[in-house]
Amino acid sequence: MEKGLELALMSRWLVILAGGRGERFWPLSRIMHPKQFLTLIGDKSMLESTRDRVASLIDDAHTFVVTGVDYVDKVSLNLPHVPPDQILGEPRGCNTAPSIAWAAESIFRRDSEAVMLVLPSDHVIQHASRFVELAHRALTLAERYGGFYTFGIVPTHPETGYGYIERDGSAFDDATALEVKRFVEKPPREVAEEMVQSGRYFWNSGMFAFRVGELLNAVQEYLPMLAEGITDLVDNPQRARDIFSEIPAISIDHGIMEKAPAVYVLPADIGWDDVGTFGALARLLPRDGEQNAAHGYAIFVESENVTAISDGPLVSFVGVKDLYVVATQDAVLILSPDKSQDVRKVVEALKQGGNHEHLL
Amino acid sequence: MEKGLELALMSRWLVILAGGRGERFWPLSRIMHPKQFLTLIGDKSMLESTRDRVASLIDDAHTFVVTGVDYVDKVSLNLPHVPPDQILGEPRGCNTAPSIAWAAESIFRRDSEAVMLVLPSDHVIQHASRFVELAHRALTLAERYGGFYTFGIVPTHPETGYGYIERDGSAFDDATALEVKRFVEKPPREVAEEMVQSGRYFWNSGMFAFRVGELLNAVQEYLPMLAEGITDLVDNPQRARDIFSEIPAISIDHGIMEKAPAVYVLPADIGWDDVGTFGALARLLPRDGEQNAAHGYAIFVESENVTAISDGPLVSFVGVKDLYVVATQDAVLILSPDKSQDVRKVVEALKQGGNHEHLL
């Protein structure tokens, strides 16, 4: 069979991972309204932006969303053109391998010759057209040659909140895809610094492209218990709760990508950010001459380097500096810029205090 | 006539000055809900606390409240037992002399032999029983000897936000009342320091006791235009708007007390505070081991010297220090502790921006 023909026969599918609980964005995000549903940048939710960004590559009818069972209705409202039976609700979060395997098995039953693009639902990509070009290239490579394709972000600083991908010496397909040597989990500071300096590492963006059948074969080989569970799940969706209590909770990176041969990374200079903390969001907002930034209505008097994020209340500042402030009608958070990771301590305090009013 | 008999014949009246607009407490206070109606300390409004504090001396039936015309209904709701015709609504704020003269003239028409106690509606007095004893003494002195009695707070620091009263050398009535040498307007820092060190100065609390007739005579003598206006006003209350546009806006201190003979100060160690700013309120709140204080629901994580004042929203802090935060459902203010006087700058910005939603 000629390659052009094979290409034309493979259908392309999008799988959006939207299971995040977004506690690092409390009080803006709530248990029932996590980050992927927030309008942090622009006027669309993170989830909508994720879906719309690749509209020229894959349509709604070929889209799956994997989310928490409690969020299925919210996803449906947010993406009304995605077929409801393609919104998969997990009864419990089990990391990415089960989510991706479930979507892959579901797609495989529709078209065994499909390729899929996996995207987290809550990341920012500032250079959308460059990303779309890259996604198209990754899907094309998967269609043409098979293999697993990841998107490696050229690191701008020694971030300790991300995983890293080390490239191998050899390039593949005219250097648009490099062989992956290994995946590195979130590193300590010194290690991150060394990796960034070496020029051989990328940030792991959590986005992938591959053939559906190839992924399922890899699951069968490296995570056989998961493969069994997922087959059972698609055959008997009413057993989801039981099955999810038994399958292994493991990431696709750790469970598959680190073990599979033919894993490639596409260097991606696409203005990517996982917006994992208020600090990350603060970096994305435009600033005035005093380095103040606002998402929502804010008044700054004699203040500098202040970030105000509000989904309603007016937030005003007099004579303060170096602060993040997040305001909603019923809860306000005031945060030191270097404590952006510690929002969960407040969430923990609320949980321990049995305060559901401010969490839900 | 024997003095005891004369005493028994004089009725005692309370005059509460409740005209403040309380912009320094925005966003907690609003134009339609100024400081005297707030519950800043304890569970009663400042106005209610002022009225209740002297319940053992003077009852509701003998109480006048002078307020802005827009606040008359609010005062009525707050003090339902004060006769409605004794709540005087000023069409425009003209400082204290007109307010006090209006109340005095109104009382004089009911009882020309009355004495009156004048109290601002929005001050805190922590040692209430000591204050009541002192007020009783001031009223008794006025009944017995005539004269104007002020309450001088022993200064604890060189406050530049208050006026001061200088005592004269000579004492009156067993040193419970000292002759006043002069009144001093809000001083610059160095002057305030000298005054506090000298031991001869008190803070002017704005509270007074005197015979109603004697006050009206003094108004006649020192502020004849005001005397004329007030007589006209009590005769023709429907002309209030016109009259208030013509009478002089002047304080009782400046207009009367500085000129009258027989002005005395009673040293008052009563835990007084005019709570004029968030800084003053912050000083009154109990603090935890990290010097954090909350009025309302707050969570402090790794934070110190933070004051949170909320009339609803949960306010949470992570890793910050030296802040005042004031939160309401629709507006949040974050303030440096040394900028407590500058809240009005935000209010000004709102006014200039035509933002009535957050002011009213």
Give a verbal description of the structure.
- The structure is a homodimer of 360-residue chains.
- With 360 residues, chain A is α/β, with parallel strands linked by helices.
- Chain A has two domains: 3-273, Spore Coat Polysaccharide Biosynthesis Protein SpsA, Chain A, CATH 3.90.550; 278-352, no CATH class.
- Helix content of chain A is 32%, strand content 27%.
- Chain A is built from twelve helices and 17 strands.
- Chain A has helices at 3-9, 46-53, 72-78, 96-110, 128-145, 189-198, 212-222, 224-235, 240-244, 252-257, 278-284, 343-352, and strands spanning 12-18, 63-68, 87-90, 115-120, 124-125, 148-153, 164-172, 177-184, 201-211, 263-268, 272-273, 293-295, 298-301, 304-310, 314-318, 321-327, 331-335.
- The longest helix of chain A is centred in the middle third of the chain and has 18 residues, at 128-145.
- The first copy, chain A, is globular and about 60 Å long.
- At the A-B interface, strand 15, strand 16, strand 17 and helix 12 of A face strand 15, strand 16, strand 17 and helix 12 of B.
- Strand 17 of chain A pairs parallel with strand 15 of chain B.
